[in-house]
Amino acid sequence: MRGRKFASQQDIERHIANGFGEGAGASYVPWLRVQDVPSIGRSHKIQGVKIERIHHLLSDLERSYFLVCEFSEDVVDIREQYPLLPTERAQAIASAIDVRYPRYPRTTLPYVMTTDFLLTVKDPSGNFKSVARTVKYRSDLIGNGSKRTLEKLEIEKRFWESQGVDWKIVTDEFFSRDLIKNLGLIRRYSKLSRDLMKAPLHSNFIECLVNSREYSWTLATCLRKIASLLSISYIDAQAIFFHLVWNKILKIDLVNTPLHLTGLVPGFEVSPSPVQVSLKEKMS
User: Fold this and answer.
1) Distances (CA, A) of 65 to 81, 111, 169
2) Is 277 a residue whose pLDDT tops 70?
3) Which residues form the TnsA endonuclease N-terminal domain (predicted)?
């Protein structure tokens, strides 16, 4: 699909009218899509497992933060490439702090600035609020070439502050390599086939896994033995294990523990399954 070009205010207004930068949940349409931006690094179009739509991520760093947001129980909606509209408001902020406002290449048209992520999160009291997050490599924020980047970030910061929205920068220091590799692996198993979603199967699987703690087995060996005990395939045992980790029924230190089938079974704690809890409630 061909990228969009912005050469006039009419172009911007047409895209707003067509719903870009509008909506929430599965109906949200990012202001910028992968095909609209010549990315310096790698860009990604990813089918969401928390929000069922294609997400447009313009760098590996955006993908990393997206994985963390999908895994987080506190994040309930993810809107990437969110526009700072109306542009007049952002322009007024730039003027007030004496910063040159960006324009589209080879035009005098004011640029529609975007924030990498506008999230809806649930706070500890159960209330929902919006938070804005911009992801940047630490190297882009220091040194001689960072001045222009910091100027635009100041516009973005003040824009969200004027809306009463918490805004922060997230850098690559926020992620460990193990965390991102682990999340990329286990999110593939966020949903399983109906045959593998039976509560008794998960309970028996967890019981077998807990009983394996006394042995110094690799994860692959452990899963093969569980598969044999439960009369399921090794592939199915692997899928159930990663599914339980993604859904936090098995709690593992994903930040510092690489999940390798050839490595030892990682340390874990077992949380009550939501399915098991609901069954107990029905029986009481």
Assistant:
1) 13, 25, 11
2) no
3) 72-172
